[in-house]
Amino acid sequence: MSVKRLFAFKGTLTNASIQHRLKYLVAAALAALVLYLAVFNRQRAQLDGVFRFGNSYNPLAKTITPDDNNHTIHRLTQDAQIQFKQLLAKRAISLEQAASRYRERRGRHPPPGFETWFAAAQESDAVIVEDFFDRIYHDINPFWAIEPARLRRMIKDEQHYIRVRDGKAWFISDHLELRQPWVQRWTELVQEMMPHLPDLDMVLNVMDETRVLVPWEEMNDYVAKEQSQRNIFHPSDAVAEYTKYQDEPTENDEPAIKVKWIGGEEHQYWDHYRITCPPESPGRNVSSLEKLDRPPVYPTRPMPFAVDGFIKNFTASSDPCLQPHLRGMHGTFIESVSMSTTHSLFPIFGGCKLPGNNEILIPAGMILDSYDLFSGGDSHGGDWSTKKDSLVWRGVASGGRHKEDNWWGFQRLRFIQMMNGTTIAQLEAGEDAAPTFVLPQREEYQSEAQKNGTLGEWISSFSDSAFVAFECFPRQEDGHCSYLDPYLELRDSIHMRDQYDYKYLPDIDGNSYSGRFRAFMRSTSLVLKATIYTEWHDDRLLPWVHFVPFDNTFIDIYAILEYYLRQGHDDEAYRIAEEGREWSEKVMRREDMKLYVWRLLLEYARVMDPARERLAFVNDLRD
């Protein structure tokens, strides 16, 4: 009943009639309030299962002082929490919502099979936010600029691929004896989606290193062409069935298009990579280093992705085009273990890539393995209050092919030296003990311990970081390394479940991505992350909410650790660790990886289909 109608009357009101109308008004107001609260609680319940409200759950909570609120890390954390809540408010809880938000964000109808995919997502209680799948469209959209027939000819003679036909999937290779074990993990994942995938051939990158590097100008043209083709056409024009593959050769078959793979230039990979950078970016017009400075040269100006020295934009912080100094501070650009690269857009799937690479991302095969190092096993660590107030790292000195004349530029070697208190103490004493790094010079990175000349002593009090193998080149039979022995020592390995007894777990790149990140995220410890590689899950994790980001030079690591370890912010570290663990159990499960690849393959099958322009799910729009 409208307010106008409620108050309409004729003649004079008696006291009784006034009281009657007031009672009616109060009752209507109460009913409206109950309805509002019901709607509010329903919306809140949708978020409550994936995000904590308030801080009451934290048993270590302390009073935040004004100085605490002014610290950049605290402000970044608060801003990220707000951003995350806004992201979760976009969660789709019905097929109609999901399809509508797809069209709004993608400019197309969803692909056929979308309704079956969404039903599987609901059955597995997946968190469906359209933004979480942005990576799929970043990877797939450029292929809309190439004719489907040409795309199929590109992959016609490839050696390693998963084939799907008539609702069944299997792996095909000319060299089954050479295939990596994670190929089987990928195949098993695709088989879990049967019989819901259309026919397709899925070429796999079985190397550690990423491979496709298309010049920025070409990619820009591909992206612009795809955007111009977007069309939400009338539902009556939609086609619901994918085109079946014809595997039997015919006289009209066109020959395969051979992709030119470039190899043997592992020490010049930067020169191949920089063509993917925008013309105005700092990295575009600088060449590979012929000789590495010792120690490496750090940037002298603040980075555009940082605030007061701390990372605000994690995506930008992983972009080498913005950081040409990384060509002398990361093994990928100094000398990778292997190289097989093309500058032509080519549909190949892989578990990680650099921001400038053009592979199609899927979850890395390693994290699909049940091996404890990558899965984390059944143990995820004890309560925060029972953990050592310390940091631990164990691993091999991977990251590329380090040698006597380049080893000091490699990221893992730098990190271990930076986390060795004895090395730092020697450096503070003026000794030439650390070829891999220099102590922070800028004020925002200098801890109180560094200012007091006791940084080495402080690092020794909490850091347990070392290599278990050097992997030098050429490899030495005794496992040692003549050029590393004067600076580094090997220690015994620590099982993953025992690493969870430490509060702080740093994660850094190896030959490419780090295979232990998901296991770390599922633990009850705090993950600190630095990387130049992108992975499938990046759009569903937020730095400062689920993990702590740090710079790929590692120059900010001391200031970050001082904030949590020495400035009374253990409760904030606990909160991020707990949020990261709980969130990873909601969006990084095997079910979530399957759903991601399932949706990706629907899009891939469509872009490869001769009838792709009209292939669409439109049932939600029909009466």
Strand-helix topology:
Blueprint: H1 3-6, H2 15-48, H3 66-70, H4 72-88, H5 95-106, H6 114-123, H7 134-140, H8 148-154, E1 160-165, E2 168-173, H9 181-191, E3 200-203, H10 216-229, H11 269-273, E4 306-307, E5 310-311, H12 314-317, H13 331-334, E6 349-350, E7 360-361, H14 372-375, E8 388-396, H15 411-418, H16 421-428, H17 448-451, H18 455-462, E9 463-469, H19 496-499, E10 502-507, H20 517-521, E11 526-529, E12 548-549, H21 557-565, H22 570-587, H23 590-607
Parallel strand pairs: 6-7, 8-9, 8-10, 10-11, 11-12
Antiparallel strand pairs: 1-2, 1-3, 4-5
What does this structure look like?
This protein is α/β, with parallel strands linked by helices and 623 residues long. 35% of the residues lie in helices and 8% in strands. The protein has 23 helices and twelve strands. The protein has helices at 3-6, 15-48, 66-70, 72-88, 95-106, 114-123, 134-140, 148-154, 181-191, 216-229, 269-273, 314-317, 331-334, 372-375, 411-418, 421-428, 448-451, 455-462, 496-499, 517-521, 557-565, 570-587, 590-607, and strands at 160-165, 168-173, 200-203, 306-307, 310-311, 349-350, 360-361, 388-396, 463-469, 502-507, 526-529, 548-549. The longest helix is centred in the N-terminal third of the chain and has 34 residues, at 15-48.
> How confident is the prediction overall: mean pLDDT?
89
Strand element count:
12
Largest sheet: 5 strands, parallel
Strand content: 5-15%
Q: Please count the helical segments.
A: 23
Overall, the morphology is globular
The portion of residues assigned to helices is 25-40%
- What structural class results from the helix and strand content? alpha/beta
Strand order of the largest sheet: 9-8-10-11-12
Distance between the termini: 31 Å
Q: Point out poorly predicted stretches.
A: 1-18, 34-66
C-alpha Rg, in Å?
A: 28 Å
